[in-house]
Amino acid sequence: VLAVLTPLLVLTAWEVAARTGAIPVRFFPAPTMILSTAGDMIRSGVLLDDLGATLRRVVVGFVAGSAAGAAAGLALGLSGLARAAFDPFLSALYTVPKLALLPLLLLIFGLGETPLVLLVALSVFFPTWITCMAGVTAIPEGYREAARAFGASRWDMFRHVLWPAFLPQLFVALRLSVGVAILVIVGAEFVQGSSGVGFRIWHSWSLFQARPMYVGICVIALLGLLCTTLVTALGRRLLPWAQPANRR
After folding, report:
1. Alpha carbons 172 and 167: distance in angstroms, whole number
2. How far lies 211's CA from each of 78, 189, 198, in Å?
3. Which residues, other chains included, contact 3 with Cβ-Cβ below 8 Å and sequence gap of 6+?
4. 7-50 pLDDT, tens per residue?
5. Model pTM score
6. Over 90: is that where the pLDDT of 237 sits?
C-alpha cells in the first residue's frame, strides 16, 4: 500500500502546486499536462519510434556485453593465471568513463548504430565481469572438497558445484548492468543520434519545451523499472535454489 500511496501523494501534491501557481508551470508542468503530452506523442508515433530505437540499442548492447562479461568473469575466476594476466589491465579500463569512449567509437565506426551499441556493450561488460569473477572466486572451498570426496570429475565439478554457485552472481550482475545500459544509452543519444528517448529529451531542451522533456524522463524511469523487474523475475524463475526460504 505504501509503495502505491507514496508516488500518488507526490503526484497529487505536484498537480495541486502547479495548478495553484505555487511552482512555475513553465519548468514544472502538472502531471496531467505531461500525461496529455505523452498521449499526443504516442498518437503521432514520435514517442513509440524513439522508444523502439532506444530499446533496440539497449537490448543488443546489453546481450552482447553481458555475455562477454560473464564469460570473462567465469574464465578469470576459474584460472588464477588468467586473472593475474588480465585483471590489472581490465581494472584500469574499468575506471575510464564509458561516455568518454564515444568520440573514439565515432571516429572508428562513423555515425550510425554501431558506436551506440558498442558503447552499451562496453558499459555492461565491466560490471558483469567484476561481479561474476568475484562470485566464482568466493565459492567456498568446502564445496569443491565435498565434490572431490564423492569422486566428481572436472565436468561434474563445473556442472554441479561451480555453475549453480555462479548463476546467482550472474543475475546480480545483470540487474546492475541493465540500469547501466539505460543510463549510458541516454547519455550517448544526447550527443549522437537523430532518434531515441535521449535524443528527444535533449531536442526538447533545445526548443525550451518542458513537457516532452518530462515525458522522456518518465519513459526512461519506467523503462529502467521494467527491465530491472524482468531480470529479477527471470532470476527467481530460473534459480529457485538461490532464493531465501519463505518465512512464516
Report:
1. 9
2. 51, 19, 14
3. none
4. 889 989 988 998 888 888 888 888 999 999 999 989 998 899 99
5. 0.83
6. no
- Residue 135 CB burial class (10 angstroms; 0-12, 13-18, ≥19): buried
Please spell the DSSP secondary structure of the chain, one letter per residue. -HHHHHHHHHHHHHHHHHHHTSS-TTTS--HHHHHHHHHHHHHHTHHHHHHHHHHHHHHHHHHHHHHHHHHHHHHHHH-HHHHHHHHHHHHHHHTS-GGGGHHHHHHHH-SSHHHHHHHHHHHHHHHHHHHHHHHHHTS-HHHHHHHHHTT--HHHHIIIIIHHHHHHHHHHHHHHHHHHHHHHHHHHHHHS-SSSHHHHHHHHHHTT-HHHHHHHHHHHHHHHHHHHHHHHHHHHHH-GGGSPPP--
User: How many residues are present in the chain?
Assistant: 248
Q: Give the pLDDT confidence score for residue 247 in this predicted structure.
A: 44
C-alpha cell at position 111: 555515425
Q: How many CB atoms lie within 10 A of CB 67?
A: 14
And the C-alpha cell for 74? 567465469
